[in-house]
Amino acid sequence: MAANALAQRERTFPVLYFEDLALGQQASLMRTVMEADLERFAEISGDTNPLHLSERYAQATRFGQRIAHGMFTASLISAILGTRLPGPGAVYLSQSLQFLGPVRIGDVVSAVVEIVELVPERRRARLFCEASVDSRPVLEGEAWVAVPSRNRA
User: Which of 10, 95, 111, 116 has its CA 20 to 30 A from that of 140?
Assistant: First the structure.
């Protein structure tokens, strides 16, 4: 990534320190799933399961059409954690996920994270994570992140 693009991206998202966090704090994003997203995700991840890439194959499954990779949907949670809440400087420690329903090409996925626990002595935050399509949950779980302190940044 060019230095100018990196500098612009850094200015786009505020840096939150552990001291800035509070229980109930939330952040979200929305993304429309496009065919190209599935192709790029398969190329990057190596997950070339035909359920995601072949309409002919997918039509014969219980879904009747291609669906997004579960980890593509989960990556929206990662995007929030790394750019919005807690944001730049946060380190992903763990993630539990339960996939509740398929995400299809053209679906608009709404992903939300909410701080549900703060551990000051370790500067850790636990967040409830959820993704939905048309208010129908398609993913839920929790994440633990380490968050830099303003005093030890």
Answer: 10
pLDDT tens-place string over residues 4-58: 555 555 556 778 999 999 999 999 999 999 999 999 999 999 999 999 999 999 9
Give, as one character, the DSSP assignment of residue 120. T
Q: How far apart are CA 144 and CA 97, in angstroms?
A: 12
Q: In what side-by-side order are the strands of the sheet with 26-32?
A: 26-32, 108-119, 124-133, 136-146, 91-99
Write down how long the chain is.
153
CA distances from 87 to 39, 70, 143 (A): 27, 23, 13
Q: Which two tokens stand for residue 95?
A: 């993630």
Domains and CATH numbers, the chain: 23-33+67-152 (3.10.129.10)
Q: 94 - beta bridge partners?
A: 144
C-alpha to C-alpha distance for 78 and 95, rounded to whole angstroms: 9
- Please provide the distance, in angstroms rounded to a whole number, between the alpha carbons at the two ends of the chain: 24
